[in-house]
Amino acid sequence: MVLLIKDEYPDKLFREDGKRLDGRDKKELRPIKMEVGVLKNADGSAYIEWGNNKIFAAVYGPREVHPHHLAKPDRGVLRVFYRMATYSVFDRKRPAPGRREKEISMIISDCLEPVLFLELYPGTSFEVFIEVIDADGGTRCASTTVAALALADAGVPMRSLVTSLALGIIDGELVVDLSGIEDKAGDADLPIAITWFNDEISLLQFDGKMDLSQFDEFLTLSKEFAKEIYEMQVATLKEKYLGIQENIEKENKNREDDSK
Amino acid sequence: MMDVKRVISKIERKYIKNNLKKEQRIDGRGLWDYRDFKITPGLIASAEGSADVLLGETRIITGLKYDVGTPFPDLPDEGVCTLMAELLPLASPLFEGGPPNNQSIELARVVDRGIRHADCVQTKKLCIKEKEAVYILFVDMYVINHSGNLIDCGGVSALTSLINAHIPEGRWTENGVEWTGKYLTGEDIVKELPLVMTYGKIDDIVFADPSLPEELVSDGRISISVTETQITSIQKSGGTTFSFDEIQMLAKKSMEIGKQLRKDLDLLQYKTKI
C-alpha cells in the first residue's frame, strides 16, 4: 500500500498535563455504548461502540450444523467467526480472513464456552458472527463483550455474562483500556475476560514485559473495571425488556380506551 | 424473530400475488413505492469515506479506502475505482460465510456498472502523474441486514460513500508522491449521480423495490441504472422473461422514479467539508 499520510506514532503517549493522548486518566475507560436486538434476521444480536470501535454481533442457533461432520452426538458446538471489514483499519485489509482473525475467533469461542450449557444441545450448533466495522484497539475484548450480549439477547441459556477488557503498559505506566495508538506504540498489552458465575478468568493473553507486582495490580484493576462494563451490559439487556413492557402497557391502555 | 425462510409456501405466494393483482403490497405500499431510505454518512473513522444506508430494514454499510498505484497501460491518465460486496452471514440465515458467491458478485457488478458508465467517478481527476501514479479507490459494501433489494440499497450506499470521500491530495515529486496537505472531496471525485432501480416480476405483474418475501416468490427481476438523462446499465436476472412493452415501460418508469429519488435523497449534502 502506498498511502499519502503515513501511519506514524508520537514519541510520547502522555500529554504535558499527565493525561493520555485522548484526554483520559491512566485508569479510565473510553466511552462505551451498547444496544441489543439491532439485527432483525438474527436470533439475537448486539452492537457496541467502544471508543472508536464499532462492532456488530449476531447469534444463530441452536440450528443444524454445516458442515455436518462438525456435529457432536453428545453436545452442541459453539462456532465463533470474528471478522474485520476491509475499511475498518488504516491500511485496507484483504477481504479474505487472515491468521489473526482465525486465532481471535478461536480465543473468543474458548472464552464464551464455559458460560453455555452446550451439553443440553446435542447435534446442534450456535454460531456467533462478529463483524468489526471500525477498529481502534481492543477489538477482541469489545467483541467478546458484545458477543456475550448477543447470546443473552438470543435467549441462549447462560451461566452468566462475560466481560472483557484490555490493560497495558505505556511509557512505563500501567493503564486501563488501551486505544489503537497505545496498543501499537505501547510496551505491553493484557486482554482479560471474566465469567461472572464463578468470578474466574476465561480469556488471558499477554504481550510485553512486566514484573510480578505489576501483574498483581493488573489482576485487581481488571476486575474493578470489568465490573463497571458488566453493569452496562446488564443495564442494556434490562432496557430492552423495559421497552417491551412499556409497549405492552401502552397497547393495553389504548385497548381499554378503545373499548370505553 | 426469524421469519426468513428458504422456501415460501404456495399459500404465501398466492397471498402476495393476489395482493399485487389488486395493486397492493403486503407491507401496504403501492406497486411503484419505495421503502424509506435512511442515510448516515461518515460513521467509519478509519475509512476515507463511508455511508450507512437503510432501505426499509435492508442495511448496507459501505466504506471507501484508497491506494496509490500505477495505472492500467491502456488508460495511463485515469484512476481506478473497484467495488466489492460482502454478504455477511450475520445479515441473514440465507447467507453463508466463505469466498464471494454468485449473489455477492452480482450485487457488486451491477452496482459497479451503473456507476462506471455514468461519468460518475472522475477518473481523470484521480490521476497524480500520467503513466506513473493514480488513485485506486476501493468501495466495499457490507450487508448488515438482508430484507430484500440489496442492489438498490447498495447503489445508494456506494454512491454516498464516494460523495462522502476525503482523499489526501497527492503531488508528483522527484521522490515519488507527496501529500499536499489538502484533500479531494465531493465534486473532485464524483459528477453524475446514477441510481439503480430494481423491479420484481411475479407472473405478469411488475413492481418496484421488492421486499424479501416478494423477492423470494418472484420469478425474476430487472435492475436499471439511470442518470438524470441516460440509462447506464441494465441487468435482467432470474428465470423469467420480460415483454418488449414491459421493458420500455420500466425504462421510462426508472427515469421518473430516479428523478424523484435524486431530488428526495439530495445525496450531495453528504459531502465532507474540510
If you had to describe this structure to a student in words, what would you say it looks like?
The complex is a heterodimer of chains A (260) and B (274). Chain A has four helices and nine strands. Chain A has helices at 99-112, 139-153, 180-185, 212-259; strands at residues 32-36, 44-50, 53-64, 77-84, 124-134, 162-170, 173-176, 188-195, 200-204. The longest helix of chain A is centred in the last third of the chain and has 48 residues, at 212-259. The mean pLDDT of chain A is 94. With 260 residues, chain A is of the alpha+beta class. Chain B is α+β, with helices and mostly antiparallel strands and 274 residues long. In chain B, α2 packs across α3. The relative contact order of chain B is 0.18. Chain B has helices at 10-21, 102-116, 150-163, 212-217, 244-265; strands at residues 37-41, 50-55, 58-69, 80-87, 127-129, 133-145, 166-173, 176-185, 195-202, 205-208, 220-226, 231-237. The A-B interface holds A 1-5, 39-43, 45, 52, 54, 56-58, 60, 63, 66, 81, 83, 85-90, 92, 95-96, 127, 129-131, 133-136 and B 1-2, 4, 43-47, 50, 57, 61, 63-69, 84, 86, 88-93, 96-97, 99-100, 138, 140, 142, 144-147, 168-170, 176-179.
